[in-house]
C-alpha cells in the first residue's frame, strides 16, 4: 500500500505541488509518495523553529523530559509498524529493522532522562566580592541531516538530545528513506511537542535545501551523518556563519585477527560486523587482517560460514542479508570486486550480484587481497570481506592506521599486553576488542578521528554538541 505524506512545518502538515517516489530496493515497487520540499520550504522551517525556540528553550527540563518519555512509549507501541515501513524503503531484514526501532526508542528514553541532568556550576572566585557561575544553555535552531542506512536510529540519536537540551529542530532525512522519519515525526506530534519545536523537510533535492540550512544565520547548529565528501562541503558552508557542527562521516574499519584469538569467535565477529545491514554501515568491517600463521584456517572457516547466509527480501523468514539501497551502490560493490580480481585476488565465497529484480549482491569473501586494490583504500559499503595477511603486531598496527579515516576498528586476541598496546595505538574513535558490536551501547560516545568526523553522539556526551557554556562573573 503506497503511503503519501506532507511536510511538517510549524505544527502543521503542509502539502506541496511536487512529490517524489520512494521505492523498495528488494523489488523496485513504489512504497511512498512524499512531499518534495524546495528552498522556500526550508526558509519556512527555519522561521518556525526560530520562532518556537524562545519559548521551548525556557520550558522546564521536567516538561521537556515528559514529552520525550511519551515519544519513546509511542515508538515502542508502534514498533512493528515502523519496522515494516523501514524494511519496505531500506531493505534490511525485518528482525534487524525491529532491533533498530527499539534502539531508536532507547535514544529517546536516554535523553528523556538526561534532560533533567543538564547542570551548571559555581566556581571559586579570586576575590571576596565576586561569584563565578557557569550555565549550560541550548545552542539554538538545529538542522539534523540523517542518512538512509539507519532511518530510525539516526533520527532519534540526533533529535532527542537536541530537544532535551532545549533546542528546536529541523529534520531532513535521506531522500531514499523518508517514510520512517515521517512516521517518527507523526508520533512526536502525537506526544505533544509544541508547534515549531520539531519540523520535517523531505526533498529530492538535498543540495538546494541544504544550502539554505547551512547558510541561514538563524540555524546555529548542523548535525550530519553521511559521506565524508558531503560532510566536508557542509563544514565549509557552515563556517561562514560559524555554526556549531557535528559530523559522523565515512569509515574504513580494520578487523584484526591475531594468531592467539579464538577463531570461531573471530569468524562470528566478522560476520556480525561486516554483513549486518548488507555491509551498509559506517562502522562495518572493511579490511580483515589475519596473522599469516592462521590465515588459511580462518579464511576457510569464514568462507564456509558466509556461504550459508541467506539473501533475499527482508520480509521473508530466515533472510539475513537484504538488498543494497540502489543501483549505484550495487555497481560500486561490483567495481571493487572486479578490480580486486583483476589484480590477483580470489573469490572464496560469493562474488557476484544475485539474479533477481532487487539490488542484491552475494555475501562475499575475497582472499589474496593487497594494498594495490581499490577495496584496500575505499569504503565498499557492501557485503564484501577482503582478507589481508600480516606477520607482526607492529606491522598490522601501521597498516590499520594508514588511512584518512578513523571511525571504528576491531581486533581479536587473548593476550592482555597486546590488548593494551592495540587499543591505545589504533587511531580510531571506537574500538571493539573481541567485540563486533560496540556501537550498540547508547550510553557511550560514538564518533571518529581524522576525516571520520567531529564531536560525539550518544550518552551524556551527546548533549554537549547542543549546549553553549556561559560564564558569569558577579561583583558586589
UniProtKB/TrEMBL annotation:
UniProt-listed InterPro entries: Ald_DH/histidinol_DH, Ald_DH_C, Ald_DH_CS_CYS, Ald_DH_N, Aldehyde_DH_dom, Aldehyde_DH_Superfamily
Keyword Oxidoreductase: yes
The enzyme's E.C. designation: 1.2.1.-
Database matches in Pfam families: Aldedh
The entry's keywords: Oxidoreductase
Domain of life according to the entry: Bacteria
Keyword Oxidoreductase (UniProt): yes
GO molecular function, one term: oxidoreductase activity
Ranges where the Aldehyde dehydrogenase domain occurs: 13-472
Protein name according to UniProt: NAD-dependent succinate-semialdehyde dehydrogenase
